[in-house]
Design goal:
heterodimer; A: alpha+beta; 6-stranded mixed beta barrel; 18% strand; elongated; B: 6-stranded mixed beta barrel; 10 strands
């Protein structure tokens, strides 16, 4: 196709498009709404799933975890592992991971004078833990732990309420040591935290790692080693490196296997985006084909005349396709602009706290942040253009294959 | 046949391809709507049933502070007497009293902190599915027996089997120290790892003496025959306990707010998607009908010149739309029903659904539930919006001038 013929086709298509401006405008409106819905809905769902993944990983926390193979099923003190050995430390250094930490995490009972509760007692290295999972800003009262042998205890705000206790009070924590003797000691509450997912406040309490090890008579033993690089989407590259350095008797798992629900959510989200975009496209395609068929139908005589005057059928085919392409491009442009301009004002989050408990069940927090991803926007645009042109081939081919004599004789 | 109807029907087939394309858009949306709404209804129902039958039940009578603040001392007196009273007054066996406490549970090798439920052995099987899920051993012999049943995962973690002893250590209702030794009489396997890891039951009589509860308990679970009968049953119970202002009756929405809200959140996002589909269909109809009105300007001009009232022609356009939408409705609903019916027998699943489903107490396969509502809701709205979309083209006719219309190309 030469430049001049391209120009002719473009001009013809453009003018034809506006001959019946009502029809074109309705179709544009349909494409715009469709594209807007594709991008807007995807951004909302992405936002929700991202939030779920981040919460989930923060809850683990750590993108890669090393455990005793039986620990996850039976989180007992008996399924502890040794602190990282030199080989692992070297691998961690080589893989250039951002931060790693080790913790003891065992089921325990916490009692105040008023009530007792079952909880998960977590012994942490305050320095490294605060870079992986524990947000120092979530402490609403008191202070964070100073170091591994800090004898203070940090509990959730909800837990404090349940136990009818408060900052500065003493509580008793009871668990078992490796010989199944009850191990207990009093702790002073030095900090109270608030979690994004409220139910966690009733599950996790934090103490210094060394203090917990002493209480449980664990000698240099921990429940898990957690490693993070702050990019949960690309874990595999460095995870494989570290895996080689880990004792074969231990279990090392990336987050999507530690919590299979989260892993599934991530892959399913990609599937969802594709299915959603295609469904909307299909709903649009009927209207698109209809519009083109009508455009061709009312121009039968004209097309016959052009052919009689020597225009090649291929030019007619291109002309209809160009018309469709222009329609799609304008619709996409408007749809994208509309989507971006509706998503941007929502960047500060949408309050969905009316269904907070339901969102919690799904693992998401009560403020929804739409996440506009370039890839999703590209996917929607590419699908609309490619499939749109494909569905236009039929009416275009139909127009190109008229017999000029017959077409000229048709009454519109 | 009425003349408008006959004309409308013939007009539709003047542009076969266009009509079928518009009808196809409706069929596509209706098929999708019937299928997804049936699937939604099916899964919500299952989510509610599975979550409630394991433990919560449809209704619970509690001391008024207990639901917000489940502490051992927020109990009420004469729990068994009240349960007996209710069974008699409501003539139902689906009523069982319970008490809840927390205790450190130790086997020879392991210890775990557990929530322990005291139950009435005779009535608990009527309100909860757990007693029926005992795979090894049996349920309690007597309300005062020193026996316990636990979940299969917990049994594995504690390294115990039926016949072994467990030591319970906890705090009694009065703040005293509670300690006891119980024999494992049964181990249940519900398939839900969380329940199997964390649930243990004791007979209520022994529970009360162990935790210094006297005749106290924490709740009475009441199940209706069917979920739809719950509000009615709640009213009856409200009346019975009206004399005691310390007690409240709570329905499952209050007991499991997360469940209701998860369904609401899911509904909201689903209806957003349905809304977009429906609007796109409406655009399609608008486009088709506007075109069909515009291309018949001359024809309509002639009809008007011959004395046909604009209202009559508008009615014709609406009838055309009505016929077209009915066609889309009937075919769409039929196909949607066929698909949903087929899947309600073989089940529906997609990769990754199992992990999702587990989180909401659902099995790995879902079964759409066909009902009049699930069949008609979506397509009904599509139908309505199609008619609304045709109003603009139909109204245009009122502004048609017969003389100039006849000259239109």
């Amino acid at each position: 196709m030469k430049i001049t013929s391209f120009n002719i086709i473009f001009t013809l298509a453009w003018r034809n498009l506006w001959r019946n401006h009502r029809r074109t405008l309705i179709m544009l409106a349909a494409i715009t709404v469709g594209v807007w819905a594709m991008i807007f809905m995807t951004a909302l769902m992405r936002g929700m799933v991202d939030d779920m993944l981040l919460n989930g990983i923060r809850n683990l926390p750590g993108e890669v975890q090393i455990h005793h193979p039986e620990y996850r099923d039976d989180p007992s003190i008996n399924n502890s592992i040794a602190e990282p050995d030199t080989k692992l430390l070297k691998a961690l250094k080589l893989a250039n991971v951002k931060v790693w930490t080790s913790r003891v995490r065992v089921p325990a009972v916490i009692s105040s004078e008023r009530d007792s509760r079952g909880i998960s007692l977590i012994g942490i290295e305050p320095e490294s833990e605060s870079q992986i999972g524990f947000d120092r800003d979530s402490i609403i009262e008191g202070r964070f732990l100073k170091d591994s042998s800090d004898t203070g205890l940090i509990i959730g705000a909800k837990m404090a309420e349940r136990l009818e206790t408060r900052l500065g009070k003493r509580v008793v924590v009871m668990s078992q040591d490796p010989d199944n003797n009850i191990a207990d000691r009093g702790f002073r509450i030095v900090g109270i935290y608030k979690a994004k997912i409220a139910s966690l406040e009733e599950i996790n309490i934090y103490a210094g790692l060394a203090t917990v090890q002493k209480l449980l008579k664990l000698d240099k033993q921990v429940s898990e080693i957690a490693i993070t690089n702050d990019d949960y989407r690309h874990v595999d590259s460095w995870y494989q490196e570290i895996k080689k350095a880990v004792d074969v008797n231990l279990q090392i798992l990336p987050w999507y296997e530690v919590d299979t629900y989260l892993g599934t959510m991530m892959t399913m989200m990609d599937g969802f985006v594709l299915v959603w975009v295609i469904i909307i496209f299909l709903a649009l395609s009927f209207g698109l084909v209809n519009t083109l068929i009508m455009a061709v139908f009312e121009r039968i005589r004209e097309i016959g005349l052009m052919q009689a005057l020597g225009m090649r059928p291929s030019m007619i085919l291109y002309q209809i396709l160009m018309e469709s392409l222009l329609l799609l491009l304008i619709g996409l442009l408007l749809g994208n602009v509309l989507a971006v301009s509706t998503i941007l004002p929502l960047q500060d989050g949408i309050d969905v706290s009316v269904v907070a408990k339901g969102m919690e069940m799904m693992g998401s927090s009560s403020v929804l942040y739409p996440a506009l991803k370039l890839n999703d926007v590209l996917l929607a645009n590419v699908i609309v253009i490619i499939l749109g042109l494909l569905t236009s081939i039929l009416p275009a081919w139909h127009a190109a294959s008229f017999d000029p004599v017959e077409a000229l004789g048709k009454h519109s | 046949m009425n003349i408008t109807l006959r004309m409308a029907w013939r007009n539709l087939w003047r542009h076969k391809r266009r009509t079928w394309l518009t009808v196809s858009a409706m069929i596509f949306s209706n098929l999708l709507l019937v299928f997804s709404i049936s699937l939604q209804f099916g899964s919500y129902r299952m989510m509610i049933d599975n979550t409630l039958k394991a433990y919560t039940g449809h209704l619970q009578i509690q001391q008024q502070k207990y639901n917000d603040d489940p502490k051992i001392r927020h109990s009420f007196d004469g729990v068994i007497t009240l349960a007996n009273d209710l069974r008699e007054k409501l003539a139902s066996d689906r009523i069982a009293a319970r008490a809840v406490a927390f205790a450190m549970t130790s086997s020879e090798q392991r210890s775990y902190g557990l929530q322990i439920i005291g139950v009435e052995p005779k009535y608990e099987p009527n309100v909860s599915s757990l007693p029926g899920l005992i795979k090894v051993g049996k349920y309690f012999s007597d309300i005062n027996a020193q026996e316990i049943i636990i979940g299969s995962v917990l049994a594995r973690n504690l390294r115990v089997k039926v016949g072994d002893e467990l030591t319970l250590l906890g705090g009694g209702r009065d703040g005293s120290f509670a300690a006891g030794v119980v024999v494992i009489t049964g181990i249940f396997n519900s398939g839900n790892v969380d329940i199997d890891r964390s649930m243990a039951q004791l007979p209520l009589g022994y529970f009360q003496s162990l935790f210094a509860m006297g005749q106290q308990g924490h709740n009475i679970v009441i199940n209706a025959k069917d979920l739809t009968l719950v509000p009615e049953l709640k009213d009856k119970i409200d009346n019975i306990i009206a004399g005691d202002d310390k007690l409240v009756v709570l329905n499952w929405e209050k007991l499991q707010p997360g469940l209701k809200q998860a369904i609401q959140a899911d509904m909201a996002s689903a209806w957003f998607m349905y809304g977009v589909l429906i609007i796109l269909v409406a655009f399609s109809v608008l486009n088709t009908q506007l075109m069909s009105v515009l291309e018949r300007t001359r024809e309509f001009g002639t009809m008007m010149a011959l004395g046909v009232k604009p209202a009559r022609i508008s009615a014709l356009i609406m009838t055309e739309t009505f016929l077209m939408s009915s066609l889309g409705l009937v075919i769409g609903v039929m196909l949607g029903a066929a698909l949903s019916y087929y899947l309600s027998i073989v089940g529906f699943s997609y990769p990754g659904m199992e992990e999702m489903a587990e989180r909401f107490n659902l099995p790995g396969k879902m079964y759409p539930s066909l009902s009049l509502l699930s069949l008609s809701l979506g397509p009904g709205i599509v139908f309505l919006f199609s008619l609304i979309a045709a109003i603009y083209p139909a109204l245009r006719l009122f502004f048609l001038q017969p003389v100039s219309a006849m000259k239109a190309v």
